[in-house]
Write a structure and sequence with these properties.
The complex is a heterodimer of chains A (663) and B (265).
Chain A lengths: L3 E6 L11 H8 L5 E7 L5 H14 L3 E6 L2 H14 L7 E5 L1 H5 L5 H19 L9 E3 L3 E5 L3 H12 L3 E5 L14 E2 L4 E2 H14 L3 E4 L2 E9 L2 E8 L14 H5 L5 E2 L8 E2 L2 E2 L11 E2 L5 H5 L4 H5 L12 E7 L1 E4 L3 E3 L16 E3 H8 L20 E8 L16 H15 L4 E6 L9 H10 L4 E4 L2 E6 L5 E7 L4 E7 L1 E6 L1 E3 L3 H8 L11 E3 L3 E5 L4 E3 L9 H19 L3 E3 L5 E3 L9 H5 L5 E9 L5 E9 L9 H5 L5 E3 L4 H12 L1
Parallel strand pairs in A: 1-2, 1-3, 3-4, 6-7, 6-18, 7-10, 18-31, 20-27, 21-22, 21-27, 22-23
Antiparallel strand pairs in A: 5-32, 8-9, 11-12, 12-17, 13-14, 15-16, 19-28, 24-25, 25-26, 29-30, 33-36, 34-35
Helix pairs in contact in A: 1-5, 2-3, 5-18, 6-7, 6-15, 12-13
Chain B lengths: L1 E6 L9 H13 L2 E4 L22 H12 L4 E3 L2 H16 L1 H11 L11 E3 H9 L1 H7 L8 E4 L9 H4 L9 H8 L3 E3 L17 H17 L4 E4 L2 H10 L6 E3 H8 L9
Parallel strand pairs in B: 1-2, 1-3, 3-4, 5-6, 5-7, 7-8
Helix pairs in contact in B: 1-11, 2-3, 5-6, 6-8, 9-10
Classes of the chains: A alpha/beta (663), B alpha/beta (265).
Chain lengths: 663, 265
Amino acid sequence: MQRIGVFVCHCGTNIAATVDVKAVAEALGHEPGVVISQDYQYMCSESGQNLVKDAIKEHNLTGIVICSCSPRMHENTFRKAAASVGLNPYLVEIANIREQCSWIHKEIATATEKAIILGKAAVAKVHLNAPLTAGESPVVKRALVIGGGIAGIQTALDIAEAGFDVDIVEKEPTIGGKMAQIDKTFPTLDCAACILTPKMVECSQNEKIHIHSFSEVSDVKGFVGNFTVTIKKKARFVDETKCTGCGLCTEKCPMKKVPNEFNMGLDNRTAIYIPFAQAVPKVATIDPNHCMMLKTGKCGVCSKVCSVGAIDYKQQDQFIEEKYGAIVVATGFNPIKLDKYDEFAYNQCADVVTSLELERLMNAAGPNGGTLLRPSDKTHPHKIVFVQCVGSRCDDSKGKPYCSKICCMYTAKHAMLIREKYPDTEVYVFYIDVRTPGKNFDEFYRRAVEQYNVHYIKGMVGKVTPKSDGKIDVQASDLLSNEQLHIDADLVVLAAAIEPDKTARPLATMLTTQMDTNDFFTEAHPKLRPVESATAGIFLSGACQGPKDIPETVAQGSAAAAKAIGLLCKNSITCNPCVAHSDELMCNGCSSCEKVCPYGAITYIDKEFRMPDRTTAIRRVASVNPAVCQGCGACTVACPSGAMDLNGFSNSQIMAEVDAICK
Amino acid sequence: METFTYYPGCTLRTKAKDLDTYARSSAEALGIALEEPSDWQCCGGAYTTAKDEIATKLSAVRTLNAAKELDRPLITVCSACHNVIKQTNYDISRDEEMASKVNNYLKLAEPYNGETKVYHYLEMLRDVIGFDNLASKVTNPFKGKKIAAYYGCLLLRPSKALAMDDPENPTIMEDFIKAIGGTPVIYAQRNECCGGYITMEDKAQAAKRSGAVMDSAKDQGADMIITACPLCLYNLKKNSGSDLPVYYFTELLAEALGLKEDNNG
């Protein structure tokens, strides 16, 4: 006979304000097998847990039901409490009467009735719970960092510092990411390259760090502690081990008219190129879309001038397989495309630029050697208009609903730098709100307004009209003085919203991690687990999780590293025992389960069976690898013969819950 | 020859005969017969945008239903008619209350719930005939002519209901200009308002709006400007004070196909 204890939590007023917790405890006390039913203000607190532990000991309980918040929140807490007094942790059931009940209902009567039903379902299930024992699996002591921007660099350096091997996979020919393109950083105005490039060099020199540049993750298998990742090393047509980065090939390449993506297409590069002087690894790459040799078979200049024979026109994409214990995603962001914002004439006029383009226009290594000139006619702009929130805080499908967070600060930076360097330039900034929370941020913005006399105007730009005389008419509204303004600008700078990199979504599918509607990776808990994904062993670093500036990105990069190091320090980890298993006598070998398994945990084996007539037959049956199975239950639903079942969530347990609810 | 139901609208019978005549002759040359429904009425004009009123939408529904009964798509050409008819069609297919009120009133043989597919003439050129196909039939191309497309406000907006092109960065008329051999001129005011009906009350305002459009097109080097809207054409011609020639797009289409003489020189 089962002896079940029920514990109803008030969660302060979170539950108790809409659910009559005493009535719930009273009603559940009458369920079959329940020997004790109690309520308490905070069941997760130490005294609450002690209440549960004492009851288990005193009443010799064989199963317990906690009516409280979501199991995602505290299932582990109560499992540990039960285990500490000798009750198998898998004999604990949670009835979620907070998220699924008290938070969504307003009337006490309805909410109480529903809480009782949810409690009854959990009691019905716990009757059928069996003790389960978690196995262990070893941890591969190597980490993978996907993305080599400042987030990935920081994470990799910290993991290497702790003594673990770490690989960086970067899709571009060099690490460095967006920060390498930035000229100065707010709020200190120090040079981005001066603080980033030493870290890039550190990555290349650290013997624990292995950089796979110009590479992409093409497949991920396995689970926490034991991922198998296929990395595609894209053909760069240059032997990385031979190339010394002397740059002679880039000087001699006759194809000189390729838009230079590092300078946002504002100048040109050659078909064989090194993205920028401080690139890591400093190795040339051939762009197959523009190389004459690869396109027509005629040229071969780079091969002739290369003194070490590093050019290899026949190089193919290469696939390598590596094992990792932990994976950190650091895929970063991009500014959105502005095609849909023709009111700002971005596609019509070369002198309407994005803020990232302005960074390059102002950078000493940029197209103008650091002198701010208009892209169209290379003259000095004397009147510059900045437009903030282009595509951010947008309520239509054109833009993004969120605040991109970094634009207010970099716009203040740009405005200030321009006023400092070219005091004869008038600078206007149009804004919805100026948002400058952060250490020394508001002081920075106020300096732009008060010390540098940047004209901040609350209001949005309605129309940008390029004129044939080279001026740009900017029509805008000043909301504070309720006036329509026309400004004859020379340069217009658009603070484009930022969005996650396009590679993030297919990667999330490979990693079976979650994303929000904007394609930012979802953290396991928005407050308490901000750098972990909900999938064990996958961590999040930088802007792939949400818009961030550099200090925040670096902080999160280090936090993700700390979490990864915590995992890599362990020799083995406890597996989830709630995995699928197949009843071989019922299995007919149809392969339905194998097809739906997202983790590749199911294989088929030929097994000998003794048949009723004493003959031996060989039958093909499903076999689950418990170390790979994540317990999603897809196979149990797909199995037509009912052979597949899930430990802890068996068909009979689920049906018992449904029966209890429908009774 | 494929036959479509064709809705000309009132203005095309009076002030905007050129828009209508050359739409018909060009369609025929391109292998499409345009057939008017019998007894068509005014589209309802600007009144239909009044949200809670069904009376103003009934005539649009009658036209849509006439096309449905013949099981043919409906072709419109006037920007304003197109806007009214397509918006009404969009609303009736989504707003059950409106649909039931309209159907209760009209007592049609079968209730109308937005089944008809509505094409603007330009959409017909793009989606049914194809601009490549059109280009191959041009005998009299507008070589070297810089032509500015003027969209106005009604042709593309509201973009959800009209679903024709990107309302801020459209390409359909520019692609049309390329198909007839011209060079499209992109200018900032191409989808701003011409002043519309304000010309009845305040000529100065209409002059300011239409003047801004014309000046912007001329400033970017346009030789001529084309539109699909009779009211835009009126404002641009009469109120803007500009000497830039304004034509209906169908005029240029007919000329490119060798069906009309003149503008190309």
